[in-house]
Amino acid sequence: MFEARLLKSGQLKKILEAIKELLKEATFDCSDSGIQLQAMDDAHVSLVSMCLKSTGFDKFRCDRNLSMGINLESMVKIMKCCSNDDIMTIKAQDNADTLTIMFETSNQEKMSDYEMKLMNLDQEHLGIPETNYSCIIKMPSTEFARIL
Fold first, then answer.
1. Contact by Cβ (8 Å): 79, 19
2. Residue ranges of the Proliferating cell nuclear antigen PCNA N-terminal domain (predicted)?
3. CA–CA gap between residue 123 and residue 36 (Å, rounded)
4. What pLDDT shows up at residue 125?
5. Which of 44, 58, 60, 108 has the most Cβ atoms closer than 10 angstroms to its Cβ?
6. Percent of the chain that is helix, strand, coil (3-state, to 5)
7. 36-94, pLDDT tens digit by residue?
8. Contacts of 21 (CB under 8 A, 6+ apart)
9. In 77-99, which positions are buried (b, 16+ CB within 10 angstroms) versus exposed (e)?
10. Which pLDDT belongs to residue 44?
11. CA distances (Å), 46 to each of 1, 91, 126, in order?
């Protein structure tokens, strides 16, 4: 069984909004260390690599490694049904063909459940070598967006 719980769904919401601009669908590889995604866009120009460590979740359980093919546009549509402060829980059974996404307000006044079909995606896992960069720049994302 896989279960991941975030106390503020807005964090994952922003990540998926950004990724869906490059990818239509992707495979989320879940293990006891967290959730990983690696994929190339359709034009093979951009490489997306995401790693959400299990320690970043309020609750994280992954009994065995699981690969979930997800349509990102559908997932983002579901994510629009929650506010940024809602508690979000994602669940999937072993060998399941659906993903359950639950939202609840922090005072548990409102709860909503969504079920999304998973896809069978054949994507190769890309080996990304560790790279030492000669320069690392840190700046607020708003400033970076303004410059671009």
1. no
2. 1-125
3. 13
4. 64
5. 60
6. 20, 40, 40
7. 998 888 888 888 889 999 999 999 999 999 989 999 999 999 999 999 999 999 999 88
8. none
9. ebbeebeeebbbbbbbeeeeeeb
10. 85
11. 32, 29, 13
**Residue 10's closest CA among 78, 85, 101, 76?**
85
Q: Is residue 122 scored above 80 in pLDDT? A: no
Instruction: Tell me which residue of 12, 18, 64 sits closest to 41, measured CA to CA.
Output: 18
**2-147: what fold?**
Proliferating Cell Nuclear Antigen (3.70.10)
| Nearest C-alpha neighbor of 88 from the set 72, 105, 73 | 105
The SS3 call for residue 15 is helix
Place of tokens 């060998």: 95
Q: Which two tokens stand for residue 24?
A: 């239509």
